[in-house]
Structures are given as structure tokens and as C-alpha cells.
Amino acid sequence: MEIVVFGAGSLGSLVGGVLARAHEVTLVGRPDHVDALRSDGLRVTGQLEAHVTPSATTDGRDLAAELAVVTVKAADTPTAADALATGTFDAALSLQNGMGNEAILADALESPVLAGTATYGALRREPGVVDCTGLGEVVVGPRDDSHSPLATRVGNAFQEAGLETTVADDIPRRLWEKLAVNAAINPVTALADADNGAILDPPAADVAHAAARETARVARGAGISLTDEAAVGAVSQVARDTAANTSSMRQDVRAGRRTEIDAINGYVVDRAEELGLAVPTNRVLASLIRTWERSNELR
Ligand SMILES: NC(=O)C1=CN([C@@H]2O[C@H](COP(=O)(O)OP(=O)(O)OC[C@H]3O[C@@H](n4cnc5c(N)ncnc54)[C@H](OP(=O)(O)O)[C@@H]3O)[C@@H](O)[C@H]2O)C=CC1
Ligand SMILES: CC(C)(CO)C(=O)C(=O)O
For ligand 1, atom 18, which residue shows the shortest CA distance? Predict the structure, then answer.
């Protein structure tokens, strides 16, 4: 399959690098990484290993492929969507965290947009090198509760390259479950400057589980069948599977970059307000991360 991966940072380089074992991949990224990819190829290290030579470009406009996989941070989705809209694709797939990315892509693109989640841990260590810090799973499916042959084709292509992939017909519930995982793990590990494994024990577990339970309550208010137990269970499972991982929000804080707080805990707070539900833990976590962003002039 011809695949463009838009956003060759941590997750995009990992997914693109593994996909390049079986497919024709083009990575869209920043100049230092793209230069390294062009001269020495891409090294995937850690829990998955590969040395591959995908195409690489800094210009995401006017590209053509069967599939565009979007792996930029949530705040960059509108720019990615505008660039991808100048190209030709049979389908696009977001593997981003947070809510709202697929809707932005669907508004901009003519091709069908699939939704997805990824629980692999990824860390781009230096230009040309990405570390797989935790084995996980990719889930892909249509944005509504339906079955899609397109999603099956994409899932088969991912599986063929060696990415553990599930094709789902209940994506809305899975997106909310992943939202609960990220609302629990990302801000807590970022604020505590701790690995994901810290979420397995109190006191971090108490805060994280409260955030996950609140997210499940909001999901149920929005008509999604997600129990508190399923949400907390998913948080514990991901924390165990990615115990040594630096969450993407902790990576952002460490690098002095704006985080995805608006699309994660901020989204939970906004939906809770619409539904008249109280989500004090998500509110505090969002406020603290936003305060950090403000004091670093990132918002
Ligand atoms: N890292 C992880 O382990 C996981 C991450 N995720 C999710 O995946 C998504 C990506 O996260 P992550 O990989 O950590 O983020 P990164 O910031 O490492 O990667 C995004 C990359 O895209 C680049 N980029 C943004 N816009 C453009 C553009 N217009 N042209 C070229 N390059 C561009 C960024 O460059 P620059 O920084 O210069 O803007 C950056 O290098 C997020 O939604 C995250 O929550 C999900 C599961 C695991
Ligand atoms: C699955 C998890 C928590 C892995 O770290 C992630 O999605 C992230 O870091 O954003």
C-alpha cells in the first residue's frame, strides 16, 4: 500500500517506520529529521526494531497515496488537513489522541476519514531515530458504529507490516475509552514528571482513576456505553503495558511545547458543562497544565 504519514515525530516515525517494512511510505516531517531520513534512513529501536528507508519530505502538499495517516499534535490538525486537501488519497486515518481531529479532517478532505487509536509508546530520540518504548495496539475503524471494508483493508495492511491492529465497529466507544486513558495518564505523568508506570500506584493512581471515572460519566451522558470499571481498567492496562514510557504530554512539557490538554481534559470539561455534569479532577488537571502553558507563553 502507498501510505503518507503526516507528522513524523514520535508516533508518526514509529508507525511509519514499521509500515515501511511492508509498504511504500512517505514521511512528512521537519527538516532535521527529513535530512537524516534521506541520508541514513530511519532506525526503529527498543521494543520494535527496524532499519528502513522511507521517502521523506517537509512539504505535505500535493501528495498522492492510498492512505494518509495523520500523527501531528491536535493543535496542528487544521494545518495538516489544509495540506492534505491539496493531495489525492483514497482514505485518511487519524491516530491522534484527543477528540475532534477526525471532524477537522473530514471537513477538509474529500476522501473518507477513518478514526483510530494507538497505545504503542514512541519517543523520537534524535533525527533519524525513534524508540518504541512500549508495545501496544492500533485500533482502526469508521467514525460511526459501522463496519467498513476500507478499515479492514487498512487494518490488514498494518497487520502485514507487524503492527498489532484491531479493526473495530464500535469506534465512538473506543475513542471515549482512549480519551479516559489519556485524561488519566497524560496530565498526571506530565505534572508529576513520572513514567506511565507511576499511575499503577497511589497517590497518582487515585488522581488518574478519578479523571477516568469522570470521563466515563461524561461519555455515558453523551450516549456512549462506557462503565467506570472499563475506563479505570483501560488506564491500568495501558499504564502496565507502557510502564517505562514517557507520555506524549510529559514529552511536550519537558520540551517546552504546547500540550494537547484542550483536546483531552479540556474536551471532557467542555462536554461535561454541556451535560451539566461535575468533573472536578479533569478541571484541576486542565487548569494546572494550562497555567504551565501560560507561564511559558505557549498560549
Ligand atoms: N508519542 C506517543 O507515545 C503517542 C502519541 N500519541 C498521539 O499521537 C500524536 C502525535 O504525538 P507525538 O508523535 O508524540 O508528537 P510529536 O510532536 O513527536 O510529533 C508530531 C510531529 O509532527 C510535526 N509536524 C507538525 N506539523 C507539521 C507540518 N505541517 N509539516 C511537517 N511536520 C509537522 C511536528 O513538528 P514540530 O514539533 O516542529 O511542530 C512533530 O515533529 C498526538 O496526538 C499524541 O497524543 C498517541 C499514542 C502514543
Ligand atoms: C498510550 C499513551 C498513554 C502512551 O504513553 C499515549 O497515548 C500518550 O502518551 O499520549
Answer: 9
Q: How far apart are CA 285 and CA 189, in angstroms?
A: 11
Q: Is a pLDDT exceeding 90 seen at residue 76?
A: yes
Give the closest ligand to the alpha carbon of residue 73: 1
2-167 is a CATH 3.40.50.720 domain: yes
Here the cell at position 223 is: 450516549
Question: Catalytic annotation on 178?
Answer: yes
Q: What is the mean pLDDT of residues 12-29?
A: 98
- Cα of 98 to ligand 1 centre, how many Å? 13
The residue whose C-alpha atom lies closest to atom 5 belonging to ligand 2 is 247
The matching CATH number, chosen from 3.40.50.300, 3.30.565.10, 1.10.1040.10, 3.40.50.1220, for 171-295 is 1.10.1040.10
Q: Which ligand is nearest to the CA of 71?
A: 1
ipTM: 0.98
**Residues of each domain in the chain carrying CATH 1.10.1040.10:** 171-295
| pLDDT tens digits along 137-186 | 999 999 998 888 999 999 999 999 999 999 999 999 999 999 999 999 99
Atom of ligand 1 nearest to the CA of 260: 45
Please, where in the chain does CATH 3.40.50.720 lie?
2-167
Q: Residue 201 forms beta bridges with which residues?
A: none
The pairing of strands 50-52 and 42-46 is antiparallel
What pLDDT score does 28 carry? 98
pTM tops 0.90? yes
The catalytic position among 23, 178, 213, 217 is 178
Burial class (CB in 10 A: 0-12, 13-18, 19+), 120: buried
